[in-house]
Specification:
By secondary structure, the protein is of the alpha/beta class. It has one domain: Aldolase class I (TIM Barrel), CATH 3.20.20. The protein is built from twelve helices and 15 strands. The chain has helices at residues 2-10, 15-29, 35-43, 76-80, 125-132, 155-166, 191-205, 224-237, 271-284, 300-309, 318-323, 326-338, and strands at 52-54, 57-59, 63-65, 86-92, 95-97, 105-108, 113-116, 122-124, 140-144, 172-176, 214-218, 241-244, 264-267, 291-294, 313-316. The protein has an eight-stranded parallel barrel with strand order 3-4-9-10-11-12-14-15, surrounded by five helices. Strand 10, helix 7 (191-205) and strand 11 form a beta-alpha-beta unit. Helix 10 crosses helix 12. The longest helix has 15 residues, at 15-29. The two termini are 29 Å apart. Belongs to the dihydroorotate dehydrogenase family. Type 2 subfamily. One of its GO terms (cellular component) is cytoplasm. It catalyses: (S)-dihydroorotate + a quinone = orotate + a quinol. Substrate binds at residues 71, 116-120, 176, 181, 246-247. FMN binds at residues 67-71, 91, 143, 176, 217, 245, 267, 296, 317-318.
Length: 339
């Protein structure tokens, strides 16, 4: 029903407006007695064999929602009823910010893709904390970044601020230095500044009552040499793992008119490169750390491909928009078939 009826209607309207409308719709429907149970009956695959333990955390199933969808931690409880094993909120910054000027999301329907240049729009870390206090048992990842006005030399302070504020309310952290939509942010992926940032966060982590897993989210546009640097940095700083990958600046092979838009591209055209990065990191590191695979997952077979390439968990974003919540159920059922 989603692809035949709902999606064609939604795709007649501006993507960002549809996003807020959909969130409002799910929120209001979920207030009706019985509707959350109906969602779970339709989409949740409840099977102990799907439980996955990664970096010390037990996930109900390995299919998560990627950061960027629930930026402000405003709908994670309701979204978990659609079958996700975990929800990653953010990217969160210390202070609220508007993000980049609208229009800033573009559908590439011919390519089954999106381009976005949101620019870390969010209400700030304290607003997110207040919402996370209402968590009803959802496993949460906290994706953190820096404010646009913060210079790179002071970026570590922004990450520390978010880390400390979210520490009691998230199960794992993701350091986002790979979004293409905050000026100069990707410069923090260079070896020395990245190692310094991660080591500082890890040192702070070790002062806490119980250290939380810290992951690094990387761009798909890194060279093999840079990916080898990532492997070295993960080993040196002893962070928990990597999320591969964020959106890409590449426009290779795209057909849609909107391919000229500035921003990060996600969706089907990213699938192969994302899988390549996962396989490279897994093989070259000798599976030394867990990888969360994200990028171009639009079918159960796409998800299995990521897992077989070396991912321990996977996340959806654009595939969730194009395929609907039935995709989560299809992936979990396919995983069970492969056991």
């Amino acid at each position: 029903m989603y692809k035949q009826i709902i999606r064609p209607i939604f795709f007649c309207f501006d993507p960002e407006k549809v996003h807020y409308f959909t969130f409002s719709l799910i929120r209001n429907l979920s207030k009706i007695p019985g509707i959350p149970s109906l969602f779970r009956a339709l989409y949740v695959v409840d099977d102990k064999r799907l439980e996955t333990e990664v970096f010390g955390l037990k996930f109900k199933n390995p299919v998560g929602l990627a950061a960027g969808m629930d930026k402000d931690a405003s709908l994670y409880n309701e979204l978990s009823n659609l079958g996700f094993g975990f929800i990653e909120i953010g990217t969160i910054t210390p202070k609220g910010q508007e993000g980049n000027p609208k229009k800033r999301i573009f559908r590439l329907v011919e390519d089954t893709a999106l381009i976005n240049r949101m620019g870390f729009n969010n209400g700030g870390v304290q607003e997110a904390v207040e919402r996370l206090k209402k968590n009803k048992g959802v496993l949460i990842g906290g994706n953190i970044g820096k404010n646009k006005v913060t210079p790179n030399e002071n970026a570590v302070d922004d990450y520390l601020t978010c880390f400390d504020a979210l520490y009691d309310y998230v199960n794992y952290f993701v350091v986002n230095v790979s979004s293409p939509n905050t000026p100069n942010l990707r410069e923090l992926q260079e070896k020395e500044p990245l190692k310094q940032l991660l080591q500082t966060l890890q040192n702070q982590n070790l002062t806490k009552p119980k250290a939380k897993p810290i992951l690094l989210k990387i761009a798909p546009d890194l060279t093999d040499s840079q990916l080898l640097d990532i492997i070295d940095i993960v080993k040196e700083t002893k962070i928990a793992g990597v999320i591969a990958t964020n959106t890409t600046l590449s426009r290779e092979g795209l057909q849609s008119e909107n391919k000229v838009e500035v921003g990060g591209m996600s969706g089907k055209p990213l699938k192969n490169r994302s899988t390549e990065v996962i396989r490279f990191l897994s093989e070259k590191s000798n599976k030394a750390f867990p990888i969360i695979g994200v990028g171009g997952i639009h079918s159960a077979d796409d998800a299995i491909e990521k897992l077989e390439a070396g991912a321990s968990l996977i996340q959806l974003y654009t595939g969730f928009i194009y395929e609907g919540p039935g995709l989560i159920k299809a992936i979990n059922k396919k995983i069970l078939e492969k056991l």
